[in-house]
Amino acid sequence: MKGTTLIFLFLLSAVSLSGADFITEFLNTCVEEKRPVSNVNIGKPMLEKMASNTNDEELKKIFQNLNSIRIVTTEDKKDAHHYFKKANELAAQEFSDYQEVVSVNERNTKINVLTKSKDDKNQDIIFIGLDEDNKLTIINITGKIDFHAISKLSDSLSKEAKTDENPDEEEKSKINK
């Protein structure tokens, strides 16, 4: 009887751990073969390697404190809208213990950010976004999350992306200095 109880508890804990990952649940329950998505997973070993390869101390600390970053994207307009709806339904049904921290619903942009703190070292963020170009992005970040640092990182990445889009502007600013 004790053996059966132990096996039951082990299986129950395994099920609860496997159900904790939003991206896995999304890929298993929502993604259709005829509507493929792109999926990128960055695990702890890669995050540690990224931390060791940067000289920016704040960025190094962010990478060291994270356990994983998982990203799902699609650029097909119909699929993006379909999956945005499915992801939000999944979040409402299976991840109702997460708190919504940001919600944006503008004409061409829709964003939902959910978070859950398990303890000081284990937080989980789910970002579900549909941008003005109808591209879907779902990001699940786990680990010890410093929201200020991630915001700063996001700002610097946005600036880099804008510079990459307009290299002439960067050259102009160098000349004007």
Bulk shape: globular
- DSSP strand tally: 6
Taking the alpha carbons of the first and last residues, their distance comes to 78 Å
Sheet-strand content, in percent, reads 25-35%
Radius of gyration: 19 Å
Put simply, the count of helices is: 7
Description:
- With 177 residues, the chain is α+β, with helices and mostly antiparallel strands.
- It has 7 helices and 6 strands, in the order ααβααβαββββαα.
- It has a domain at 37-157.
- Helix content is 51%, strand content 27%.
- Strands 1-2-6-5-4-3 form a 6-stranded antiparallel sheet.
- Strand 3 (99-105) and strand 4 (110-119) form a beta hairpin.
- Helix 3 (44-52) packs antiparallel against helix 4 (57-65) and helix 6 (147-165) crosses helix 7.
- The radius of gyration is 19 Å and the shape is globular.
- Mean pLDDT is 80; it is low at 1-19 and 169-177.
